[in-house]
Amino acid sequence: MKICCIGAGYVGGPTMAMIAHKCDDIQVTVVDINEKRIAAWNSDELPIFEPGLDDVVKHARGKNLFFTTEVDKGIREADIIFISVNTPTKTYGVGAGKAADLKYIELCARRIAEVAEDDKIVVEKSTLPVRTAESIRRILEGAGKSIKFQVLSNPEFLAEGTAVEDLEAPDRVLIGGEDSEAGDKAVQALVDVYAHWVPRERILTTNVWSSELSKLTANAFLAQRISSINAISELCEATGADVDQVAHAIGTDSRVGPKFLKSSVGFGGSCFQKDILNLVYLCEHFGLPEVAAYWEQVVHMNDHQKERFVKRIVRTLFNTVSGKKIAVLGFAFKKDTNDTRESPAIYVCRDLLREHAQVAIYDPKVNEESVLRDLEEVGTFEPDNGKRKHVSVYQDPYEAVKDAHAVVILTEWDEFRELDYQRIFDTMLKPAFIFDGRNILDLKELRKIGFEASGIGKP
Ligand code: NAD
Ligand code: UDX
Question: Do residue 191 and residue 237 come from a single domain?
Fold first, then answer.
């Protein structure tokens, strides 16, 4: 059995590495048009940081796991082809700002249609709007070849930072297939791959549309929990309740459950916002405005959470941060990843810069190039506005906080809990402010040191 995966990103790389690691009898080839990324997958410095990933890749690479830019060869030789390319929010034309941009998906389908010489199972691994499988099937069959294609949906549920453990022991694997004999056979072939290590009862099979829609729904539900607790955090601040205590109290109800109730400066990452907006667009497309508005509010609440965090910093610092050094600890969208896509830090830093602050950033895994690129992309550095010189990226947290008016925690990296806050306090300007956007610090202890400390949803 030979598998090819198109797209060597945060999903394609780890997912295929795990399949190769668990299935000695399967040859897995990950292809990508990005030469730099492929070179990194073949080096000692993998293109993405994920705890435990190096070992999984090293175990299989060169044996039954290969990374290459030879896309056509990979497609031609494979029995099963996963499509795991990016599906960002469209930035132009119809559906701009909401719909998923499917151009990379379509390019893959056309490439497969052109170079395939025998029957293939094509698997949607990317997150896609419901009914995309139909378009893929039509493109594949449009080539008019006598070979047969089966299109399956197999969305990925891994979360970054825990990708390896999520892949090793998934809550479930979801496979959607066509309701026909050929469809069942294709589903079984993919079930057999996962059954190498996933208990059979955790491999769910559905029709294609349910599988596609389940992925968007899962992310919408998860993000909705965060926006719900973040909405309550604002009420906590107004009333003296403590959002962590409220979250604990409601989470002990087994119907609610304790996970995903951590109030924060807002959710980030490449998936939640994109997938909810995609869902909203689909609802509008199908003439369901009330359903669309319901889900869109999850994103509005998230934007509000980021904005009000910055407003609070400005208000607390005597209504101006102009010319003040603000030390930002954490730029990744969550801990244990170097990924910054849609990180709340981008928007918080942009808005602080718009208030003329001097922003000093430290993140253990994000480099200066990524920080500046991200800030540029959200319009922070308009031509000649000079904002670029107000950003500095540090390698050492203690350097970043020196002479700062305020410290702002934006990612919940474990190392931020362990910092020497007395040392930090001593080097800061007074009054020394600290804003914990992740509620990871003990505010009482910080106040004992002398900080003016505040968290999210804290009295
Ligand atoms: P990514 O941007 O990290 O990787 C996508 C890769 O596809 C890139 O390396 C790009 O060069 C490559 N690519 C694009 N077009 C190509 C083509 N025509 N031929 C060959 N390669 C091509 O994206 P990602 O984070 O891995 O996400 C991929 C998909 O998985 C998205 O649909 C996303 O929504 C979904 N997803 C992501 C996560 C996550 O945590 N990142 C989790 C679950 C699902
Ligand atoms: C998410 C889904 O969890 C995963 O199943 C899907 O495959 C991809 O999208 P990811 O975005 O990688 O995964 O990370 P996740 O752990 O979901 O965190 C997303 C964002 O929400 C982060 O910014 C995180 O800090 C934030 N978050 C998460 C909270 O603010 N509070 C929480 O309680 C949980």
Answer: no
